[in-house]
Structure formats: structure tokens, C-alpha cells
Amino acid sequence: MRKKERKRDYNLQWNKNTTLLLVGSLFLLMICLALEATHVYRLISTYRGFVDSSITGQTGLDAELVSSNLNADIQVIRSTAEQLQQNENYDMDELQIYKLLLGVRNKSGLDRVVLIMRDGTTYSSERYSTMSGLEKLIDQSAEDGSATVAKTYFDFGDGMASYCIMMPVVHKGIVQGYLFGLNSTTQLLHGTETDTYSQISRSYVINEKGTIMATSNSDVMFVLQNDDFYTDVLKELSEEENRDLMEEQLRKAFAQGTTSVLTFHAKSDDWKIFFAPLSEPRGWTYVNVVKESDVAALVKGIKVESTVSMALVILLMLLLCFIIFKFVMSEQREMLKLAFEDSLTQAPNERYFLAQAQKLLKDYADYAYCVISFDIQNFRYLNESYGHMKADELLRLMVKNVEKDLSVREGYARIGADRFVALLVDDGRIIERVKHLEERVSKAASEEMINYPIKIKSGFYEVTDRKENVAAMIDKANLARKSVIPQTKDLVATYEDSLMEETRRREFIESKMEMALIAGEFVPYLQPKWDMKNNHIIAAEALVRWKQGLGEIIPPGEFISIFETNGFIEKIDFYMLEQVCKYLRKMIDEGREVYPISVNQSRYLLHDPNYTLNVQQIMLKYKIPKSLIELELTETVFFQERERMIEVMEELKRMNMDLSIDDFGSGFSSLNLLRDMPFDVLKIDKGFLNETNTSESGKFILKKIIEMADGLGVRVICEGVETVEQAQMLMEIGCNYAQGYLYSKPIPMGEFIEKYNVPINGQAAHE
Ligand code: C2E
Ligand code: MG
Ligand code: MG
């Protein structure tokens, strides 16, 4: 799967979580909305109820206020009338009466105070204003001599109608005249206009008959002229057919003298009529007429405010959610990247591959698959020679080119330094694709100044059981890759079950080796080297055997190569050298015949800077003459690590050690070796001998090698001589020494001692 699809895959994982989060948030949001809507609804109805009761309360207060305004005026008129009544002789002249009336007007809030005598003489606080028309009201005067409040239409400059308080002046049971106190209805309603709802309500003061005594609304002066609340106001509020019913309801309600409210449905709107009785004069009512839509408009403000604030809160919530989502998304992406991506190359890592491969194998059940494990041959060398930066670049090139080649049905991962794994559709072209990849990476690398042929080493595992653990598949492909022999051309290997057995064997050996060394389970066997001409032993080779607890013997072929890869061979080689030295010392000390013993030395020893010193120390420890020890180095080592080999050999030669080249002819033998290396013995590999059996040319070459060695003063010994014919043939071509089953197999030391280390009469042969 390519990077792009991988990203999509990450999104997929993100989406799952986000959808959950989103659905959860939306659900919460819905709940919030529902709660908020209920809250607003309840707030509005509460507010409406509050407005209603508030206007009702306010109406009661206003009624009290009007009542006290009126009573204040009545009191003034009453006390003035009483003052006049006490003037028994009525001997006040016009000026005095005028002064009295003026004084009363000035002290009270009245606009005008008028006295009309029985004979029609009129006195006014405005000296020259007669206020004609007032006398008509005298008829309305109460017969019991109490104050009467009537309506007049004098305008005292505020555009409003006026009212008057009328009081008879009685003296000795005879009405002498009438005292009038006039005032603007503005004064009557003084104080009510400041209430909270005055903006939306029309206020009326009506008397017991329903006559409008005062109104807050100057625009409806005409109403005052028509006088009647039920006629004029209800006409405006209701349809004709409802009017009678309304009037009846209102009259009844007003007559009860309680503070309350009535709602009416009218032409275009609903109306609310709030009313409260005036405590004085009796039967009067203070009325507030309010349009429902005006109350609704008041409430609307709250509605709008609540809705806007709710919308804002929701918007903020959404914004917050969005920011959180963004944050979570990027965090999650980073986490997924960390969890599933290799930071150096951005390639998927093994963890990602395990899941992805499993999914691909399931999703594309019809396709045959192959797991391939591959690495870059000699990457360590590239790393050291070109530096880490270039090597990293090479890895990135690898990733880029691998990605280019993959289909959506395939996946890959970087699982280690230069190690990759891929799940490929097995279409019979996989090796071809790997070669193609190798070419592309090599070309791209050369453009990056890495002038080294890039070789890809790969191991294949054909997926047969799709249910198998992907990690196990990778292990198998890895095993195949590791089994690739570096010198081969194609650098490709396929997994076989034997590889797994090998691995198990390797693991078993590795788990036991350390303890086995301590327990002395590694023992040297000795195989004689033979002088064929004179038919006697001349030397021997020490060959390691692993003798396990139960007596089972493991041959070196099963563990040497493992020890060579894990480095344990170093310990074995020194151990063997020491065992051989110990044995020789014992033989010498016991005065037995001794023969030089050759000991195999691994190439890994060459990398130990103390190698030659350690050899010397062991020899010195057991006081072994140099001539009794020969060190065998295999031919492959010469070929691969020539320089180092020459260096070490020269050092050993300076120490007078005998050196031999083992397995000559088994690998890429070079005659130059014979020239350049300071060695004493050439051991011809047994494979070479097999070759001479069948071909004349092989025999010829062997003869020439022997001649050349002779010429160089090097002894030649042939390994693996099993038959008399072979021995004969060797002697014919000039090789007199042999090592092989014909003479003896490698035998335990005790047996060897018995057979060959025979006691020398008298004294030891070597000191
Ligand atoms: P090598 O050093 O070439 O030893 C000779 C091998 O040839 C021995 O195998 C020996 O048993 C076998 N051989 C000798 N004569 C005949 C014959 O006539 N016919 C056949 N078929 N084989 C014959 P062995 O003991 O199994 O050792 C195998 C290899 O293991 C050795 O080859 C050597 O490379 C390595 N080796 C053994 N011991 C040590 C050790 O202590 N250290 C190291 N580094 N390598 C060791
Ligand atoms: Mg050997
Ligand atoms: Mg050999």
C-alpha cells in the first residue's frame, strides 16, 4: 500500500473515533438546544406572567395615586368651603374673596378656584376670568352637601381636559353658593405616567357610570368628548357583536371593586384590561388598557436576547468542538505516525505491516501471495564508506522505489536498519520485480554519488496458510534471506522447512554452548598425518568434538559455522589451542613420543588485536616448543581478508610459528596466495582429491601445484585420503604426506596417546 493510501487508512481510523465524538457532541448539542429552548419558553411565559401581575400591581398603585391626588384637591375645596361657611355675615368684599381663592389656588395644586354665589355672582382665583359654564354643573351637586367631582372641558394649557370638584357653601342650612376647584386631568393622573408600562398602556379614570373622567392619552380627546368608556373604548377594541358581552363583563368586574385583569380577543389583536378601584370617590375605577402585541413586543426583546445568546453559546460550543476536533485529529495523526511509521524514511513499520498484511490476505483471498524479506548487500560497508547521511539517503531511495512499484493489494515495511519486508502478489514475476527495483535504486543511488553497485539480497516465503501469523511469515522470509550465500549471483533464496529446523538447531546450540564450554564438553580429537612413503605418523590435527552429557557426539560441521556467526568460535579456538598445549606438555612430561599438532584457527581471530599475543601466552604457559604447534587457516580467509591475513601471518612467522593453508582448492584458489603468504604447509582439500579421481586435468593441476609448492619450499599434505589408490596416485605426483581415513579417523586423545605417544626409553624427546 502506498503512502497516500496509508494516509487514507490513518484517516479511516481517525474517522471512526471522530464519528463517535461527533455523534456524541451532536447529541449533547441537541440536548443543550432542547434545554435552552425549554428554558427560553419558560422564561418567556414566566416573564409574561410577571408582566401581567406587574401591570396589575401597578394599576392598583396608580388607582391609589389618582385617589390621593383627587382627595388632596377635595380636601382643599372642603376646607375652603368650611372657611367660607364660618364667615357668618358674608361681609367679605370682592377683593377679600378673590384673595382667599387665590391663596387657596396657590397653596394647592388646583388650576383654578371659583365661587359662584346663589345670586349668580362669580368669584375666581383668576380675578377677571368668570369661567362661564360652571353654573351648569350645579345641578350635579350632591344633595347632602358633600363634594362632587365632575368633568369639564377647560384646557389649562396642556391640551388635556379638566375636572372640577364642586362643594356647596352652606350657611344656616341654606346653600349660599358653590365652590369649584378645577384642575387638569394631567394633575389627576400625576405620578402614573412614570410607571414602567405607561409606554404600552392607555390609562383611564372612569366613574361609577362608566364616564371617562381622565385619560393618559391626549390623542383621544374625542373619547373624553364622548365620555363613555364602554362606548368609546370598547368600540375601538372589539367587534360589535362582542361589545355587549364585554361591557357586561367589565361592568360586573368594575362593580366588584377588586384589582384584576380581563383579556379580550378583538379585531386584530388581543387586549388586556387591567383595573383597580379608587378608594375615593367610591365606584370609580382606574383602568389600564394594554395591547397583547405590545406586551409580546416587550417579551420579544427577551426572546431575541435569549435566542441570540443561546445561538452564541452554541456557536462557541461548535467552534470549541471544531478546535478540539482539529487538535485531536492532528494529535492522533501524529500518534499514528509515531506508532506506525518509521521516522527516518516515513515507510510503514513492522507493527503497521502486521495488521496491514493480515487485512490484505483476508481482503484479496483470490490472490496468491508471497512474503519477501530483503536487505541491501554490504550496507554496513556503505554506511562506513559513504557516511550515515548518504546511507540514510539510500534507504529513502529504497523506500521511494519500493512504494512506486506496489499495487493497492500489496504492502511493505522497514523492519530494521536496511531490512525490509513486503507482501507481494505472487504472479511469477517477483524476482524480476526485485531485480528491477535493484536497478532503479542503483541508478538513483549513483545520482546521489553512491558509486557502489547496490545489490538486494532477498528471501521469499510463499504464503500457503493465510491464517498463519504474519510475524511467523516474516520470520520465514527472514530465514530464507539469511540463508542466501553471499557469493552467489542472484542473492535470492526461498524458504524451506529445513531452514526452520536449522534455526531450531542453531537456537538449541546457542543456548547450550556457554555452559558446554564450562563443563568441558568440547574435546579435541586427533587425526594423524601420515608419511605415505615410509608409512608412519608424522603429525596430527586437532579437531573439536562436542561430547554432550549423555555421550552423544556432535561433529564440528554442525556448530562451527554457528559459532563463526556469533563469535563464540574465538573462545573455542583458544580453548582447543590450550587443550592441545596441555596435552603436549603432559606427553613431554611423561617422556612420551610427541608429534606436531595442528590447530584450526577461525578467521574471526584475525580481528582480535590480541590474537598473536594470546597465542604466544598459551605456548609460553605450557612451555611448548613452536615446532610442535601448527596453525591452520582456511583458504577462504585468505581470499576475503588478504591484507589482514598477511599482516597476522607475518607476525606469527616472526614468532616462529608453523602455518598452514587449510582446504586449499575448495574455494577460489589463487596461485598468487602461494607467492604472497608466509606459510609452511599447504593442505590440499579433500574435494580436490575427488576431482583428480575422475579427471586427468585435475590430476595434472594437482601435480603442478605440488611441484610449485616444492619449488617454494612448502610442504604439501593431502586431506581426505581414503583409498590405497589415492595414496598411490599422490605419491606418483610427488605428494608424500596425507591425512585421511585410510590411515586413521580423528580419534579421542586417550586412544591417540595409547597408539602414538608411546613412551621413549629413558628420557623425553623434546624439552
Ligand atoms: P578441516 O580442518 O579441513 O579438518 C579436516 C576434516 O576432514 C575433519 O572433519 C576430518 O574428520 C575430515 N576428514 C579427515 N580425513 C577424511 C577422509 O578421509 N574422508 C572424509 N570424508 N573426511 C575426512 P571434521 O572433524 O568434521 O571437521 C570439519 C571442519 O571443522 C574442519 O575441517 C575445520 O575446518 C573445522 N574444525 C574442526 N575443529 C575445529 C576447531 O577446533 N576450530 C576451528 N576453527 N575449526 C574447526
Ligand atoms: Mg583443518
Ligand atoms: Mg581441511
Structure description:
By secondary structure, the chain is α+β, with helices and mostly antiparallel strands. 50% of the residues lie in helices and 20% in strands. The protein has three domains: 17-318, 2-Layer Sandwich (Beta-Lactamase); 350-496, Reverse transcriptase/Diguanylate cyclase domain (Alpha-Beta Plaits, 2-Layer Sandwich), CATH 3.30.70; 507-746, Alpha-Beta Barrel (TIM Barrel). The strands form four sheets. An eight-stranded mixed beta barrel has the order 16-17-19-20-21-22-23-24, surrounded by six helices. A five-stranded antiparallel β-sheet has the order 2-1-5-4-3. A five-stranded antiparallel β-sheet has the order 7-6-10-9-8. It is rod-shaped and about 190 Å long. The chain starts with a helix and ends in an 11-residue tail after the last helix. Bound molecules: ligand C2E and magnesium ion (2 copies). One magnesium ion (MG) is lined by residues 662-663, 683, 685, 719. Ligand C2E binds at residues 527, 543-544, 555-557, 560, 569, 572-573, 576, 600, 602, 632, 662-663, 686, 719-722, 739-741, 746.
